[in-house]
Amino acid sequence: MDRTKAHHNLAILGHVDHGKSTLVGRLLYETGVVDDHNIDQYRAEAKTHDKAGFEFAYVMDGHEEERERGLTIDIAHRQFDTDHNSFTIIDCPGHQKFTKNMITGASQADHAILVVAADDGVQRQTREHVFLSRTLDINEFVVVINKMDLVDYSKSTYQQVVNDVKNLFSRIDFDVDEKTFVPVSALKGENIVTPSDHIPWYQGQTLVEALDALEIDGRAVERPLRIPIDDIHTISGIGTVPAGRIETGSVTIDDPVTFQPSSVGGDVASIEMYHEELDTARRGDNVGLHIRDIEREEIQTGDVVGPADDPPTVAEEFTAQLFVLYHPSTIRIGYTPVLQAHAAQVPCEFTELKRKLGPSGTEVINDDPLQLESGDAAVVELSVDRPISIEENEIIPELASFAIRDMSHTIAAGKVLDITG
């Protein structure tokens, strides 16, 4: 990774089978990260699984189960550079069964590519990923209309899908005019790096040009250090190495840090990012930390690392604004699903329904509603079964987002307004 360039974490979102992994594989191939020899190997392997045409998807789908089933289950990370930016790609699962993994992936992202298949259009997971991303503060999208080869590169089909995505964005107050739409064929390599002769009616950017134009919000660097821990490794000769993405601030060797809500701390002994040792890491970097005097059993996935003198906030009760994505009946006071914030998961309870809001999230429809249904926006009071590290949206928005999960579904997505206990 070129550390002289701005570093972006880029989530790849969209419905199952809309070509996300193929798009990423093609992007890595066209930018020189993956060579012809690798693709030939993947092509041969795909044929053994009766998955001809999946060679580019295999670049990201590293697990045997993913390759056999032809879908992304876990979250995959790969890196590439454009002229001005360095990207870490987070390829998020599109299948509804793996939405929990998608939330973890999207929570690490600065921007997103939303992949929509031209022959299938906006589907349920398309909508769910967009709603979740809005709540998780991913506001800048490059919308890729993929599989243009399957619709004979039709301008009218492309425009219909674009209009459907714009309607989806407008429902949740995204600025539609600021979104970039790019038609591509990931499988054929059309309009990824160079313009395609098959779409003479399109005068916009290629996908790489659109990504190169993305910019980072500099305010997150100035906020205090926050690193949600999404994995913990035990490495021979080193010891316990918690890993996660730096959401805000920076960290330097010898900095005293604390883990919350585990309430243990120590000094940073070493910092590593993708097998490279660093003296300092900054917002956006995915790092592993070796902390002096910290044992594996003292910390847990879902802890958040912060400065010892400015520790991450710990909450057991808070007021939140949320959007109900799906519920088979109604949500009432006393409802007890699971709350997921970054990598933390904890049972929670709806203790008060304060206000029902309009689609924009600002207009109050009524106070003290008796129940919430799919499609409702609301302000609610939540309590959790055990302490969780989470922040208020006005102070550290990068750590204020959460999702509500129940019955293998994402029920709602929200953000913390006020920590009350």
What's the gist of this structure?
By secondary structure, the chain is an alpha+beta fold.
Describe the structure.
The protein is of the alpha+beta class. The chain has helices spanning 20-30, 36-48, 64-69, 99-106, 124-135, 155-171, 207-212, 219-222, and strands at 6-14, 76-81, 85-91, 111-117, 141-146, 180-183, 227-235, 239-245, 250-252, 256-260, 264-273, 276-278, 280-282, 286-291, 304-307, 314-324, 338-341, 344-357, 364-367, 377-389, 401-406, 409-419. 18% of the residues lie in helices and 36% in strands. The protein starts with 5 loop residues before the first strand and ends with a strand.
Strand order of the largest sheet: 2-3-1-4-5-6
Helix content: 10-25%
- Tell how many strands the DSSP assignment holds: 22
**DSSP strand content:** 35-45%
Please mark out the parts with pLDDT under 50 across 5 or more consecutive residues, or reply none. Answer: 61-76, 92-100
Radius of gyration: 21 Å
List keywords for this structure.
single chain; about 425 residues; alpha+beta; 6-stranded mixed sheet; about 20% helix; about 35% strand
Could you give the topology of this structure?
Layout (H helix, E strand, L loop, with lengths): L5 E9 L5 H11 L5 H13 L15 H6 L6 E6 L3 E7 L7 H8 L4 E7 L6 H12 L5 E6 L8 H17 L8 E4 L23 H6 L6 H4 L4 E9 L3 E7 L4 E3 L3 E5 L3 E10 L2 E3 L1 E3 L3 E6 L12 E4 L6 E11 L13 E4 L2 E14 L6 E4 L9 E13 L11 E6 L2 E11 L2
Parallel strand pairs: 1-3, 1-4, 4-5, 5-6
Antiparallel strand pairs: 2-3, 7-8, 7-15, 8-14, 9-13, 10-11, 10-15, 11-12, 11-14, 16-20, 16-22, 17-18, 17-21, 18-19, 18-20, 21-22
